[in-house]
Amino acid sequence: MDDEDMSCTSNDDDDYDCCDDDYYNDCDVDATDDVAVTSTHSEEAEFECLNVAQVEKVFVESVKTLMLRLNIGDKVAKLLLVANSWDIEYIVSMYRMNRYDLFRQSHMAAKSDVAYEKPKNGYCSVCAIDGYESLASLQCGHCFCEQCWNCHIESRLSEGVATRIECMESECGVYCPPDFVYEILEKGPLRAKYDRFLFRDLVLSHRELKFCVGKDCQVVIRSNEDKPKRVTCESCHTAFCVKCGVDYHAPTSCDTIKQWLTKCADDSETANYISAHTKDCPQCHSCIEKAGGCNHIQCTRCRYHFCWMCFGDWKTHGSEYYECSRYKENPSVAAEANHVKARRALEKYLHYFERFENHSKSLKMEEQLRDKIRKKIEDKVNEHNGTWIDWQYLHSSVSLLTKCRYTLQYTYPFAYYMQSGPRKQLFEYQQAQLEKEVEELAWAVERADATARGALEAHMHRAEHKRQTLLHDFFF
C-alpha cells in the first residue's frame, strides 16, 4: 500500500467547500451563553489522522515500550499487545501479578520467540507425508508439511482471518506469528493479501485506532475518547462516531443505535408500509405531497395550517406542550391478549420509526434548501447587493437547522428504548421543546425572504439552546 495514498492533507483554498459539507462547524450561533454548564463539553472528538507509515510507527513504539518495561522479546510483546487491545499499563500490571496466566491468555504460554522450526523427524498429520525437509511446526511441535500449511493459511485468509491463524492440530491454542507465515507463503498476491489483513487486524485490535468509514479512504483515525463523539476525516471529510463507526448519533448510545438499526433492518416490510410520500389534508382531504423539510404544512387549496406528523391544528400545536413527539402508552395493555400486545408493540415502533424516517427525509430535502440559499447568496453578491459576509446568516441558518434536526432525528431511538418514568418524561418534554423550535426555524428558513434577520437569528438561538440543553442532560 502506498503511503502517499494515506496522507491527510488539507487545502486552504477548499475551506469554503469543506464548511459547506459540514454543518456542525458551519454555523456561528452561540447558544451556550444561556447554558453555561455545557461550555465544558463538546460533541467533537479529539483525534488525529494517520497514514500507514504513521500507524506502523505507533505499533513499533508500543512494542519497544513493552519490551523495555517487561524485559521480553519483540514477538511476545506484540502478541500480548494484540491480545489486550494494546493497553500497556494493563499488561504490565497483570504481568507483574501473574506472568504465566498472562502468557496463557495470549495463547502462547511460555513459548520462545522462535516461531518457525524444521522438525528433525516425523510426518504430516494431514496428508501423512514423511520427511523432515518438507515439514514445519510452530513451538507447539505439531508437524505439518509446507503444502498443507500453505492451504491452511490460504483457507483462513479467505475467511478474513490473519492474526489468529491457529495451528492445524485440534484444540491447539498456538497461533501462527507473521514470521512463520512469511516463511510458508511465497511473495505474490496471497502474501500481499496477508499483509493487508494483518495490518487491518492490528488496527482493529488497537483501542485508539479506527479506520475511516469513508468510501475508498485509507486514513486511520487515532483517538482515546471514551464517549461516542463525532469525528470528521481530514482527507475525505466523512463524519462518523469515533467509537462505533456509524453515523454520529447523539444523544443515542452506540449500543442503542446498533439495536435500533438492527430492528429497522429486520422490520423492512414495516418500513415499506410507512414509506408513502403523500397524505390527505385533514380539513379538505386534498392529496398533499411534502416538498420541504418543515413539518408545518399549509394546504395550498384550503390554506389550512397543520402538522405533517399528527395532523393537529398548527395554531394550538405548540402553544403549551409539543405533544406530537410523545408516544402515549395505553394503560390497559397489560390486561390485553398476546396478539393485541404485539399490535401495540408494533404501533409503538411505528410511532418512533415514522418520526425517525421523516426527519431523515427532511434532512435530505433541506440539503436542497442549502443549495438554493447558496445560489441566492451568490446572485445577491453578483448583483452587488451586499457581500458574501452580509448574507452569511442565511447560510448559517440552514446549517443550524440541519444540525438541530439531525440531533432531533436521533432522539427517537433514544426515546424508544427508554424506560417509562420521570426521566423519560423530562426527556420527552425537552424533545418536544426542541422539535417545536426546529419546526419554527424550518418555517422561517424556508421563507427567509419574508423573515427579518433579527427574527431568524432569534429562531436559531432558541433552537440551538434547546439542542444544547437536551444533550447536556442526556448525553454529555
Automatic annotation (TrEMBL):
Residues 120-328 form the RING-type domain. Its EC number is 2.3.2.31. GO terms for molecular function: ubiquitin protein ligase activity; zinc ion binding. It catalyses: [E2 ubiquitin-conjugating enzyme]-S-ubiquitinyl-L-cysteine + [acceptor protein]-L-lysine = [E2 ubiquitin-conjugating enzyme]-L-cysteine + [acceptor protein]-N(6)-ubiquitinyl-L-lysine. SUPFAM superfamilies: RING/U-box. The keyword Ligase does not apply. GO terms for biological process: protein ubiquitination. Its main location: nucleus. It is found in: Nucleus. Keywords: Metal-binding, Nucleus, Repeat, Transferase, Ubl conjugation pathway, Zinc, Zinc-finger. One of its GO terms (cellular component) is nucleus. It is an enzyme of class 2 (transferase). Signal peptide: none annotated. Belongs to the RBR family. Ariadne subfamily. This is RBR-type E3 ubiquitin transferase. It comes from Caenorhabditis angaria.
